[in-house]
Amino acid sequence: MNPVERLDPFDADRFLEEFWQRRPCLIGNWIQAAPLPLDDLLDAADSLSLPARLIRGRQDLADWTLLHGPLEADDLPDTPSDWTVLVQEMDKARPEVESVLDRFREFLPDWLLDDVMISQAAPGGSVGAHADAYDVFLVQVGGTRLWQLAENFDTTLDNRFELALLARWQPETEVRAEPGDTLYLPASIAHHGVAQNTCQTWSVGLRTPSGPEMLFLLGELLTAQSRNPARLSVQQPERDNPARIGSGLVTEARRLLEHTLSMPDAELEALLGRILTQWRLWPRDEEPELETIVQHLGRNRSLKLHGSARLAIHGRHGEAHLTINGEPIRCPSPLARELAQTRLVGSAWLECRDGLEQLCDLGAIDIP
Question: Pairing relation of β-strands 190-195 and 25-27?
Answer without folding.
Answer: unpaired
